Amino acid sequence: MADDDDDGVVAVEDRLFRNARCPCTDPRAIKIAVIVAEPNKTPFVTAFLAGARQAASDRGLPLHTWSNDVFSPTAQALAILRAVDLGFTNVIAQLSSSSLSSPPMRTIRSLQGQAVSFASVISGEQFLGDAAVRPVFHVGPDNRVVGARAASHLLATLPAYANSTVCLNQVATLSSHDLRCQGWIATMRGAGLSSGQVVAQNLSGQVADLVHDGVTAIYATGTIAADVIQAVRSLGANTTIVIPTEMQERVAKEMALPNSLVPFLVDTQPYLQGYLSVALMYALRLTRSRLATTMLQTGPRLITSVDANAIGNAARQDAGFPMCTGSALCWDRSHWRIEWVHGAPDNAFWAEARSGIILAAREAGVQVREYLPAAPTDSSTAAHVASIPSTNLIGVGIAADASLSATRAIVGNATWQVPVVSVHNDLSMVQSASAYDVNVFMPDYGSGAMAGDLIASGGFAHVTCLYDGAGFNGTRGVSALRDRCLGVVDRLTLLRVTADYAFLSDPLDETLYASAMAPFIASGTDLFVAPGVDMVDYAINVLQGTGRFGLGQGKISGACWQATPSALTAMGQGNWFFAVDQNAFLQGYLPNVLMLVRAITGGNELVFDTNLTESVSPPRTIHAGPTFITTATPDYAYRAACSAAMTGPDVPAGDVDVNQIPMQSIAWPVCRLVPAGQDMAEVEHQLDDVTMGLAIATSIIASLIILAALGCIIRYRRTRAVRSVSVRFTCVICILSCLLTGSAIQLAWESTVTMCVIRMSWFPMLVVTILSTIFAKNLRMLRIFSAVGTETSNVVAVNDTTVARHVLMLATGMAVIITAGMLASPPEISTMELDRTSTSIVVDKYCTYDVYMLTSLAVYFGGIVVASVIVSLRSWWIPREFNETRSLSIAQYAIFFTSTVIIPTSMFVVTSPTLSFVMSFTSLEVVTVMVVLCLTLPRIVYARKPDAGPLTGAKLRQSFRSGRNLLETDNAGAGNHNDPFTNTGDHETEKDMEIAHMRLQLYTLRSENLALKKRLRIATSSASSGQPDEWSADPPAAADRYRVAEPQ
Question: What is the pTM of this model?
């Protein structure tokens, strides 16, 4: 579905990154306004707006910016109202005053409750805890800290210049500048030194007066520092230094001089403030969530003369860090690379986090690669981290357990000179957390304590936390799940609420949950807490089985970490209390944004504070969670649908860009913006001409071989060798096999829903019918020869009707499974990207079927195969001259090998459509031809022997007489009249008689020879009456003893 716009651009669903349960979000629907109070004729505002506009451009967002020539609170208030009237409901504003009564603050407060989201930037950090304003975040420095940091560094490095200092306030009454001066002056006075503030007006005259008065250091709060430096230079003074705020090219050049007036500067990184604030507002609105850390400090960053890149970075910042090629001031992002190292389980949390990684990568226009080991270990993860090349590398993301000490050691010693971000891990208990530049995670113990507060407010009396372990361990930092339980129980115990643990030795073993939870259900637990994402579904299943699942008196409810679809569904039904959202998507999304901006700006630092009640926390930390989702949370149902994501096949280590990773479903899909009528063409992968030609030739040759075998069977159908098997069923197998080999080429045809239904109906039915026919024929042979030598009443008669009945029963069972599966869950078409150009994408479409139907088919087919193998083993002893048992056995073994080895192997090459087709097609053709040849070739060879004439009545009578005479002679000589097949006499005599007896029995089982059966009945009747028939003049005493059952 495409949404039209007036500019001729449409939003279309991305065919490669979509979610069947969640419509894609048109980025143009997220309208962001940026209102800056700083005067717009400064390098600071230029760099800030450049970052904001680049972030909006990368994401296709409508961006409205406003700044004024001079600072005017009234004009800023009017600009906020104007932006909201234009439909920009996400406002990022520099809150210019510390007073709630200022015009901008009165305007913001008046818009509360009108579906407008506000965030502060540059200044306004003091309002984060104000319930009347409630900004969703603040991106920028703590301005008081900026001034204090500059003063502290001067005191530490150049104390002689700290004796008499002044803070030169560029814009008085603008809170960012006022607070910087307050921090500077307070630090200097705290050191026992004098300092004061001067409001910048007549700059050259003011600087001259300050120098004349003996001021040793002038701290400039804004970009007027360049003019201050020029004024001091013009006076020829060498006793006064200048401490600038904000990086500029003129300042960087001054700092590089041998007799520089600038020993260092403090930078608040305006480009980072602009880019990060817009990207973060967009991500929060996309996911309809909030960050637990609401203040993201972008400074102060100290820059000294030893920074070799200062001049180049300053020049690029003054130019707005343009993204282009062919200029020294421009960045070409296409070669940049971010590496992600995953050492965590592949579950709902990581699927959602990877969705964030992929979206940020696509927006950034850089390469992002993933290392996804099947079974990560400390050593293997560390080895991969050590092998990451530094060429074009701009950042590394580590999504591995905090316990991987070797990995941390490698990171700490790496020489990449790029930021390393740790994701998801609560590193508050890890001593070597300094190995990471930034940590993005949710504090586990702290989130547990906050969850305990919410549980207590819900009035629950007895709470049980599902504990990861066979016994209790009160040490924090052992595992995330244990820390969450510890936080919950510790807080509830403090609040005098009964709380305990249900121990699970293996949280991934579903069978343990019922027995672990049962005692607590019996003892009155009214709330179970599932701290792990894999625990949620298992706990819900147990609670549903109690008949008391829900909220209220006498009910048992639950709470969990990670807002899984099942938890949110139960919440919507009124059965689940809350879900702790870790913001997995943002944990994957934000690191990529931060690493990109760091690369653009040439070395920004990210210093984040912590506003959660965590006793110990490393520096530079973003707490993505916890946020708590209940039925009162806006859009919780929407989150249930859009947060779900599933990963595709594992990716080889370090050699695949995330844009090429197949995703079955992605969380929070975003529409693509393309010119109307010029959507990127989707080209389906086609087999090359050589492969297709070879496949067609193979199919024709295989079919001709089978038809030739069928012709020979018909040609020699009256010979003893061919008539010793069922001609009709052999012909049926040949015809079905020919259909199979001839239609196998459809595996190369385009995958549509109709074609998926045809394939799932056609191929399994043909294969099972062939296998069932072989199995039934083999079973008949076993039953016949198992009866040799038994009394008449025990001889088993198995004719073609019985075989047909067995085949029909087995084929019908397969048809029922396929039909029921198709009706319950029709097949779907999945798309996997294979290649991408600027105008098109090459994809492979393949069928996906319901897992329960596939499992049922596998079990059913496997049962037939196993039964066939058992029958083959039991019938291997039967002589081969007049039966097909061994040939049938070889055919069954070929099918067994294909189903257990070849087919599973082809599933591992799904990412290579050509290889997958070649394996499936070739195995189908070869095995089918092998089966037919096993059934027919030995018969045809025997039929062409000189003594392999038709099985006539005379030959049969001669064989029978020979066997009978041998039997009588042996019995007379030995004086033993017992059954010859159980005596201990001459074994050769027994063998000959057995062969004769089997020949007669096989012959009488040919239901198609009605005339012969009639003659056999006459012969039997004549023998009973004592009169000879035309077969023999001898009395049929021996024949009576071994009379075969009459065919039905």
Answer: 0.69
